[in-house]
Amino acid sequence: MTDPGTGTTFDDPEALRKRALAALLTARERTALLTSCVEDPELTAQHSPLMSPLVWDLAHIGNQEELWLLRTVAGRDALRPDIDGLYDAFEHPRAERPSLPLLPPAEARNYAAEVRGRALDILESTAFEGTGARLTEAGFAFGMIAQHEQQHDETMLITHQLRRGPVALTAPDPMPVPAFTGPAEVLVPGGPFTMGTSTEPWALDNERPAHARLVPPFFIDTTPVTNEAYQAFIADGGYTDRRWWAPEGWAHIREHSIDAPLFWRRDGGQWLRRRFGATEVVPADEPVLHVSWYEADAYARWAGRRLPSEAEWEKAARHDPETGRSTRYPWGDADPTPEHANLGQRHLRPAPAGSYPAGQSPLGVRQLIGDVWEWTSSELLPYPGFHAFPYKEYSEVFFGSEHKVLRGGSFAVDAVACRGTFRNWDYPVRRQIFSGFRTARDARPDSV
C-alpha cells in the first residue's frame, strides 16, 4: 500500500515484520535500562504524585502487551488475569498506585519477560496482510505495543528527572554547533494542505483520517524558544505582570509561587537547573524545557506573538510548497537518523537551537522533530471522520477543552512514537514533561 500523502510504500509484510521486531527489541532494551539503573526501593517508591512508581510502569507494559498481542491477536488464555485491575491506568489514578498490591520488581521483570517471549512467537506467525483484520494489517498491533512501551519509557525518564539524589543514567551530549545565524522566523504560505494520515501503517487513531485544512499565511519561529530568550522574559518581570497570562495561568503561578521553569533556581547572577540529579548552569542556547502551556502562552504574549495552532505547526512540519505534498517528516519521507533529529534518549538534553540542518523543513524550519515537545494553542479534538481504534481510552476520552496539544516529540521520544502527524496532549499546568515551544504570528495574505 502507498500513502498518497507521502509517497511512502509499505507493501512488504516481511520488511514490516522486521521493523516490528526491531521496534519491540529497542523498546525493551530501553525499559531494562530505565528499571535496572536503580535499586529495588527506588523502583517501588513514588517520586512524585504526578507519576507512577517505576515498577508499576514495568508491569503495566507487560500487561498491555499480554492483553493485545497474546489475548486479542493470538486468542490465548490470560497469563495473569488477577492483575488486570492493578495495571488499568483508568481504574487507579497515579497518586493511588503505591498503595496497591503491585508485583515486586523481580516478579514484574519475570512477567514482562514471559509475555515478551510469547509475543515474539506470535509476531513470527501472524499474517500482516490479507486477513481483513485492522488490528493485524501491516502489523499495527505490534507497532502499537512498541509505541506504548516507548511512551512509558518516556514517562519513566521523567520520573528519573523528578527523583532526588544521583541518577545513574548517562549519555553523550549533543555535538556543539555554531551559533545559529539564520532568520528568526519563516513565512508559511497560506492555502490548503493535507493534515493527518489515512495510510501510515502504525499511526494511532487521533492522527486519522487525512483531511484538507485551509491555513492562512503565518510566520513561525525558525527554532524553538531558547533559555536565553526565556530568561529575558523573566528579567522583564514576565512572572509578575498579569497582562501576559491567561486568568487560570495567573492564578496557578500565584498559588504555587512559580517564577521560573521547573527545576530552575537563581544563584547570584546566574540561573542553575537540576538535570537528572546534577546541578548545572542553564545553557543559553538550548531550547527552554519544563514549561507549562500557561508559561509558553505568557511568553508568546510578552513577545508580541502567539503559540501556533496545531494545524499551523503540522503545515510548517509537513507541507512542501513546491510539490503540495505532506511528507512524513520535515525533511521528507525517510525514517529519522541521528543527522535529522535528537530522538530516542540518545542524549539526555535538547541540542542547541539551530541544530540538525539536515532535518529542517523545505521552508527552513529546524528542530520540529525531537529535542522538546512543543505546545500549540489547540485543544485536543478529533479530526473529521475520527473513529476510535482499537479502544476509546487511547484518545477519545481526552477530547475536549481540558487538554492542550503538543507536537514534535522530545529527546526522550523514540522514533517509533514520533512523526509529523503524531499528537501528544496534556493539561496546561504540566511542567514535568519535556516540553518547550516556539511562537508564531499572523501574516497578511499579500505576504505570500
Automatic annotation (TrEMBL):
Domain (DinB-like): residue spans on this chain: 24-156
Top-level class of the enzyme under EC nomenclature: oxidoreductase
Residues that coordinate or bind gamma-L-glutamyl-L-cysteine: 94-97, 426, 430
Pathway: Amino-acid biosynthesis; ergothioneine biosynthesis
Residue spans of biased composition, Basic and acidic residues class: 313-325
Coiled coil start-end: none
Binding, Fe cation: 60, 148, 152
Residue intervals of the Sulfatase-modifying factor enzyme-like domain: 182-441
Keyword Oxidoreductase: yes
Region of interest (Disordered), residue spans: 313-340
Catalytic activity: gamma-L-glutamyl-L-cysteine + hercynine + O2 = gamma-L-glutamyl-hercynylcysteine S-oxide + H2O
Gene Ontology MF terms: gamma-glutamyl hercynylcysteine sulfoxide synthase activity; iron ion binding
Keywords: Iron, Metal-binding, Monooxygenase, Oxidoreductase
Co-factor(s): Fe(2+)
EC number: 1.14.99.50
InterPro entries according to UniProt: CTDL_fold, DinB-like, DinB/YfiT-like, EgtB, EgtB_Actinobacteria, Sulfatase_Mod_Factor_Kinase, SUMF_dom, SUMF_sf
Family the UniProt entry places it in: Belongs to the EgtB family.
NCBIfam families: egtB_TIGR03440 (TIGR03440)
Role of this protein: Catalyzes the oxidative sulfurization of hercynine (N-alpha,N-alpha,N-alpha-trimethyl-L-histidine) into hercynyl-gamma-L-glutamyl-L-cysteine sulfoxide, a step in the biosynthesis pathway of ergothioneine.
Name listed for the protein in its UniProt record: Hercynine oxygenase
Originating organism: Streptomyces dioscori
Name of the gene: egtB
